[in-house]
Amino acid sequence: MKMPLTKHWCLNKDCDFEVTDHKMRDGLKCPKCKGLTSLEYVKKDCT
Prior knowledge:
Elements: E1 6-10, E2 18-21, E3 37-41
Antiparallel strand pairs: 1-2, 1-3
């Protein structure tokens, strides 16, 4: 079973790092600016 789809992005407003995948990346640092990142679970529309 796959992990839920997650979206990770950099908290630095000047950085444009963003990745969406099924990997859980706890403690991920931004590879571009080494800043903090945030995550959000992406929900698929069930229509």
